[in-house]
Specification:
The protein is an alpha+beta fold and 261 residues long. Helices cover 37% and strands 17% of the residues. Strands 1-4-3-2 form a four-stranded antiparallel beta sheet. A two-stranded antiparallel sheet has the order 5-6. Strand 2 and strand 3 form a beta hairpin. The longest helix is centred in the middle third of the chain and has 25 residues. The radius of gyration is 24 Å and the shape is globular. The two termini are 18 Å apart.
Length: 261
Amino acid sequence: VAGENFDQSPLRRTFKSKVLAHYPQNIEWNPFDQDAVNMLCMPKGLSFRTQADNRDPQLHSFIITREDGSRTYGFVLTFYEEVTSKQICTAMQTLYQMHNAEQYSSVCASSSCSMDSLASSIDEGDATSLAKLQRYNSYDISRDTLYVSKCICLITPLPFMQACKKFLIQLYKAVTSQQPPPLPLESYIHNILYEVPLPPPGRSLKFYGVYEPIVCQRPGPNELPLSDYPLREVFELLGLENLVQVFTCVLLEMQILLYSQ
């Protein structure tokens, strides 16, 4: 378990994640920092869901800034896949049995009753709340399907957010599709790593993803730096008043800290 979150129900806890594979193994000008990438890809850790939970894929990005000021950009697609290990499913059910037993004891303690007379002394209100707890806060290995979070990430020298987003979504569809794509998945990964060059300054580049072509554009030397992040999302997240206040703080050269879950 990642962090001290034992009070949460097992499906609301986060667990320690790790990098399963990365390609290429190493690049001289950009050495792979496994701990940093792992933390930034899954900042909350590994999480589990059931068929009753929302499992829509989520996209986010991150920046790694090194001591010399150079930056590397990461784009991450997080999705959920079915847990096929019976050992993990059994462990999840055991965690729920332990958690519900602790909650049962808490209900008992709040009713000032002993374990010996638990059934007879819980009042109607506590019994109702306990029934709801066991109904909605449970995992049954014979009834529920368990899913675990997984992510695929592209690390790039420039922030081509839209191009990376489109490629990751297409790759995800290929991974989850019942009908395999025209070529093996390794072919598409090899293509974007070794055969798709960075577009020259002031030029556009069109390359093929898994299913559809993808276009990325790089500003010229006299243009504003590449900023491929949608401005609309900033307004949606912060709101107009907050954004004006942040912009005012930037103009006044004040220190700004954005805090988020």
